[in-house]
Amino acid sequence: MTEDSRYRLATRSIHGHRLRDAHGSPHIPVYDTTTFAFASTADLLDVVDGRKPGSFYTRYGLNPSILALEETLAGIEGAEMAWAFCSGMAAETALFLTHGREGVVCIGDAYGGTLELLAQQLPLLGIKTHLILGDELDRLDALLADGIRLVFFETPTNPTLALFDIRAMATKAHAHGALVAVDNTFASPVNQRPLEFGADIVVHSATKYLGGHSDLTAGAMMGSKASLGPVWSWRKNLGSMIAPATASLLSRSLRTLVVRVRQHNAAAQQIAEAMTRHPKVSRVFYPGLADFPAHALAKKQMHGFGGMLTIEVAGRREDATRVADRLKLFALAPSLGGAESLVTQPCTTTHHELTPAERTRRGISDSMLRLSVGLEAVEDLIDDLEQALR
Ligand SMILES: *Cc1c(COP(=O)(O)O)cnc(C)c1O
Question: Of 254, 279, 297, which closes a domain?
């Protein structure tokens, strides 16, 4: 990808791979093949020992559909290399098992599966994990001094769209010899490229914006050769490789990533502004609003403010539930980043397992609704919200 890095993101998302199909197809087809043949043992060893690029065995990732996808994935985050996975959680698991064995500190809110892995499962393997909230950042120095070697966070977070300063975290972590990994799922590389601010590793649930159509489950990890190299064996032996058909579908999706995300951004901004004026909405959480607390930081490290926003319905939990149930275009479903708009009430879905006190501690009220703004006509989406709030 290095020779192509002069191209802009929209170009890289389409021409990101150098592999060429033998028949001239501009797009690498699905190689369902599990194993690839060589002309000689010398040729086989060249690929196995990494002297020459090539295909070998699909679970290793050495498959043309997967290799082409990974070149594009690296290009869109401005990374030296990328690994594709069968899900976002597979990418997170490989990350923590490779780089988190001497302890992980997770800052702020994170995806439910990630929190469960960190809080409950990794400690069963003897891995020390520390979950600190955004107002406990003063604990970070002591944890790093104690030998924690991986700092992990999402920015923006779910569902309050809290932001963390990537450059500041990287400076602090690097001073102690620790790595910084950012889950960039909510922003997408169109809006934020954490590696440019000093992060070492980026992970994605490609199930969301990268896939963009709610029709595939996949994960991705991007970073330098030094940080991603050791992840390879873990992915290989955990068996968490992306399927070739999914890799091809994800490559197809990446070709429209830039235009999709720009439209998600524009529509979310318009909806956020409409909701701030609505008498039945008490608060709007969206980094693109000038009076949002983290707006200045958003402008510093984001190119766009994303398609996710949260509104707080004036009233109680039941009022917000009624609004969610009355929406017609916003489907009541978890997940995000697809062409269709979705709504969730965090206290009944993503944060249902927490006690009310824990939700309050995290700034999540029961009357919040999280919106994933899709690609429908924004006027129709605003009309839908207005009829539901009425
Ligand atoms: C969905 C999601 C994940 C998990 O991804 P899967 O593809 O469902 O495994 C991780 N992080 C964030 C921020 C997510 O939204």
Answer: 254
